[in-house]
Amino acid sequence: MYKKKKYLAVILARGGSKRLPKKNLINLDNKPLIAHTILSGMRCQYLDETIVSSDDKKILDVSKKYGAKIIKRPKYLASDRANSVDALRHVVKNASSFDYLVLLQPTSPLRNEKHISEAIHLIEKKKADAIISVCKVEQNRPGSNFLPKNLSMRNFFKKKFLKKESQILKDCYILNGAIHICKISPFLKEKSLFLKNKIYAYLMSKKDSVDIDTEADIKLARQLIKKNSIEKK
Length: 233
Description:
The chain is of the alpha/beta class.
């Protein structure tokens, strides 16, 4: 709990993965990939509960082992055509008395409890309904855009804004998928994490934004984790 608001962390982890089979269970630094996200959620003092939603028994067993609560996801919400919003609504309807939903992508192992705490601080500071993590990228990358000084994402997905501001603002950003925080009431009403108003960006470094999708991503994550471990000594 933070500022008398209750935060529910949700980790969506399907069993199927076309590019990397059993991706969420891949060994990374002597732990299954999903364990890194579960532990970051469990260590964040502001999260009241951490739930893993999955259709895969092995993922659910591993998640329970690392301390997360689990929800068995129905098959119709775990197909390639199913979307994350419907899976999140399924979790929210089975959990009550929370003010904010915190979606933590299991393929972001370098995102930790400090990042989650900072994002929660930001949502309170901005009096926001939603916070989405981003990182800096090269201009003109698909899906990227510029941010105003107040970090509002209200116009982030509008091409007109990109053209208008490109000559004024130097830094370009893209969603990194690591953290989505959304007030539950507007989320259920709009059926989206990308709310129309009161939505702001939380900035993360590129190295902390590694998203595991390929063997190269795993190799990079292992290098960064090793480097971080050496720097802490």
